[in-house]
Amino acid sequence: ITGAGASVSNTASLHISGVATAGTNNYALWVDAGTARFDSSIIMQTTAKLYFDGGSDTYIKEASANSLRVYVNDVENCIFSATAFETRAAIDIVLAAGKKLLLDSGGDTYITESSANVMKFFTGGTEAVEITAAQNWKFNGYLSVPATDKIYLDGGSNTYIAENVADQIYLFAGGNEAF
Prior knowledge:
Elements: E1 29-32, E2 35-38, E3 49-51, E4 59-64, E5 67-72, E6 75-81, E7 85-87, E8 100-102, E9 110-115, E10 118-123, E11 126-132, E12 137-139, E13 150-152, E14 160-165, E15 168-173, E16 176-177
Antiparallel strand pairs: 1-2, 3-4, 4-5, 5-6, 6-7, 8-9, 9-10, 10-11, 11-12, 13-14, 14-15, 15-16
């Protein structure tokens, strides 16, 4: 507002245009006891931040085209885009017991904790693998290993089972054929 009259310059902090005039209870912005209400979209510039802690260090912003980034304590924690979700900080992703981590849009390929300390993997809606806290693995189907690969028994060093010749199984210990 200038000293010469009631005109608003282009440096206005708040500009409301197109407020409805017919009927009752018309508003473009309503603030009541600290709660703001918008009856339309909120459009922000791509570099703007939407704060959740009074403007300190917890916010969401669009840092690149079609990509939302979440910051907590000014540290980038995760990115949401049209094609991916990515964690950036050393954080845990926690699912409530019995919930599914869906791996496809059809909802039939997922990982879940079916009961305490029992993890199950489903593909096509059918349980494929179960792993218990005791590290017992149950396969509901075949465990298939390509002929040239090895099944290590010592963490991937030199004790393993392999098929060296078609349809012949060999056991290696210390890198030497044992049987």
